[in-house]
Amino acid sequence: MKIFKCNSCDYASVSSKYTCPKCRSGKLEAQEVSPEGTVFSFTDIHIAPAEFADIAPYTIALIQLDEADVKVTARMDGPVQIGDKVALDKMEDGAYLYTKL
Ligand SMILES: [Zn+2]
Q: Residue 5 Cα, ligand 1 centroid: separation in angstroms?
């Protein structure tokens, strides 16, 4: 998975920006890291937006990556608990789909 890390402070994110939003001077540089991580928090979605109504209820998790100080918001393929180890299953319509290890 590609992340973007500032070359002058500790900021990192999965979204690309031209300059660092934290120190406002650094440049963000792409870096490839493992998509594996740990569930930091999660929410069960019971009432979904129309395009996801057919898959509700589902779980959205905030995942702390193992190899970088970055959190990723992803849809889970099943129930999770905080602290569960998870891995990227696939990308779907630009969204991360994660599965429990
Ligand atoms: Zn910075």
A: 8
